[in-house]
Amino acid sequence: MRTDLCDRLGIEHPIVGFTPSEHVAAAISRAGGLGVLGAVRYNDPNDLAAALDWMDKNTDGRPYGVDVVMPMKAPTEGSIGDLSALVPPAHRDFVEKTLHELGVPPLPASEDDQDGVLGWLHSVARAHVEIALEHRPALIANALGSPPADVIAQAHDRGILVAALAGRVDHARRQVADGVDIVVAQGSEAGGHTGEIGSMVLLPEIVDAVGDQVPVLGAGGIGSGRQLVAALALGASGVWMGSTWLLTEEYAQGMPGQTAVSQALLKASSADTVRARIYSGKMARLVKSRWTEAWAAPDAPDPLPMPLQNLLVGEAHRRIAAANDPDVVAMPAGQIIGRFDHLRPVAEVIEEMVAEADATVSRLGTTRS
Amino acid sequence: MRTDLCDRLGIEHPIVGFTPSEHVAAAISRAGGLGVLGAVRYNDPNDLAAALDWMDKNTDGRPYGVDVVMPMKAPTEGSIGDLSALVPPAHRDFVEKTLHELGVPPLPASEDDQDGVLGWLHSVARAHVEIALEHRPALIANALGSPPADVIAQAHDRGILVAALAGRVDHARRQVADGVDIVVAQGSEAGGHTGEIGSMVLLPEIVDAVGDQVPVLGAGGIGSGRQLVAALALGASGVWMGSTWLLTEEYAQGMPGQTAVSQALLKASSADTVRARIYSGKMARLVKSRWTEAWAAPDAPDPLPMPLQNLLVGEAHRRIAAANDPDVVAMPAGQIIGRFDHLRPVAEVIEEMVAEADATVSRLGTTRS
């Protein structure tokens, strides 16, 4: 299964895999796809540097990418202390009360000194980009659309392609005008930050709008070879997958404290996700849990805007992770998680996808009248 | 473009088209698809009988279908008067106030004597089935899942296939166990009653669950040949389309008072729909308008359950239709409406779809590694 994207990125299969785990990202690249490491969880940019150093040594010289979370225009931004002061006390009370009701204990004092996921902050995302530029990614992707113009320019100076996620056709048009090289058309099925338009409608719409200028990847609901071929039928040059990798052996091994998350995702059906603003302040799809249900209750407050919501729930997320209860998780995940009931190695996922895709194309050939 | 569905239904292309217009339904069947007439709008079953008589004469002997709205178990049901008494006065006040604010005038006294869409009532849906059985449909479809067992039995006695719409895999499994012959896997992108799972995920999931027993149709977001091929790639035997036909010449001609609706749909983007319970009491996707926005406002009441909500808004729908204002419409429509900017004849829609589907299959053949 080859498309123009393969030549463009120097990869074997038109499969781009986003993941917060450097072990998964490297395995995707080694298996012939493009592994894209999510930087947002690295509060200390030095940790991202270490992860990319490791990937440089563990990808057999194959290309990989880095994903940052960066609005095009830098927001007004104070220190963590300034920002935390903007979180209403009633919101803090709701979080504390909810965690208590869900049986999530406080953290040990030694671990209670972090500040949530700082990657949502523009200054931290900037540091992530600088670290990425010091390595050899083939691609820098931005979850929030076009990165700032100078980031695009610096990437292009180094021969690095820039990708952006788009949930609406007007966003895709603007990204291409801004100089983005690859548009990821992300349907509502996707995990994490996601819009309302389903892949079946969004993907061909974005292809028709910008596909003559840039390759378009299909994202949202992709986890099998049939779905890869469906995306290609809709005009994509390849696919961008995220949730599928959460249920791989490398993810379970490489991300500590994910036992409860794995269990929650394995037992979830495709109906067990919900879109809400409770994770970061922007709409994101999460696996349903007692935590997401608490935020959907009539007495729950409205979530705060980005980046305040993540400052509000950052400690809660760490407490939830430490409690390791499959019924109480705070985890972005797409509807595709309903299709997986056991952990597989990354290489097997890609091998099966490509084989199924080839078989699907053969099957379709018999339908011509 | 042929699949096993074509042989099963005696049609040329694997395209099933749902529409409330007998003119559109007949045109779909004449063009080689299967036109399925929505019965729910026929308050007087004799009007449905007349429409089916007309279709018998205007489909060149080709097969067609009928779609009813019928829960498997008959709900407790009083007279219209009894039911209307259950509508809270505050809800009536909200509707009246909203229509006033939106500039929607009362109906002339002569037209102010109807009772909303009665097809939501089980007794009326039963009458629709009886009328259908007196004609020669190849298919009876039910928007609310499995029809009652005796309806399935009567249809089978007459050689009529029974189809049901499913928005979740557990619904599909139950339908097949109930004796349904064709499952329509309807993704969240669809117009009208629809679930939360996107077509990209739902369709292969339902195919894997029941596709070895019955043909599965892909619905939700289908309006082009590429989307038809995507559905086939995902394992469907064909597609079920609804919203696409709302923007055909036959619909505009055959459904009086639809000028404002056509204008509203033509100007809508794929982002201009919303899922809400305001149309019937069950979740349905509608085109966004000042009417849907009013129901989303903080002061709006929660919609009533089916069938009360439609009794509440039935007169409002007629007033809105009479006012003929493209900014104030109450119209079920799927996300695919964003792709159409002019009215086309039904035959052209189908011809273009099939040609694009054939071209897409050819294109996919070149991607094999």
Automatic annotation (TrEMBL), chains A, B:
<keyword id="KW-0503">Monooxygenase</keyword>
<keyword id="KW-0288">FMN</keyword>
<keyword id="KW-0560">Oxidoreductase</keyword>
<keyword id="KW-0285">Flavoprotein</keyword>
<protein>
    <submittedName>
        <fullName>Nitronate monooxygenase family protein</fullName>
    </submittedName>
</protein>
<dbReference type="GO" id="GO:0004497">
    <property type="term" value="F:monooxygenase activity"/>
</dbReference>
<dbReference type="InterPro" id="IPR004136">
    <property type="entry name" value="NMO"/>
</dbReference>
<dbReference type="InterPro" id="IPR013785">
    <property type="entry name" value="Aldolase_TIM"/>
</dbReference>
<dbReference type="Pfam" id="PF03060">
    <property type="entry name" value="NMO"/>
</dbReference>
